[in-house]
Specification:
By secondary structure, the chain is mainly beta. The protein is built from one helix and five strands. The protein is 7% helix and 46% strand.
């Protein structure tokens, strides 16, 4: 597992899916399960987040960077 920081690019409140922009300019999507695992209620466009990635590089958790790092 690894963690990266990103900026929310798009978030659909109805489906809990979205896209983030990594610091290197890469767009990465996340599924509802990654958002739901965080306990968050919503994400705002432009908000900074931390992503926990699984071994395959898929997002498995989206959290706010102000919350404790759960990837350790």
């Amino acid at each position: 597992m690894s963690a990266v920081q990103a900026t929310v690019r798009d978030f659909d409140l109805a489906t809990h899916r979205g896209d983030v922009l990594l610091d290197d300019g890469t767009v990465m999507g996340f599924e509802a399960a990654a958002f739901d695992a965080s306990g968050l209620r919503l994400l705002r466009l432009g908000q900074r987040v931390r992503l926990r990635l699984d071994d395959a590089g898929a997002v498995e958790l989206v959290t706010l960077i102000t919350l404790p790092d759960l990837t350790a």
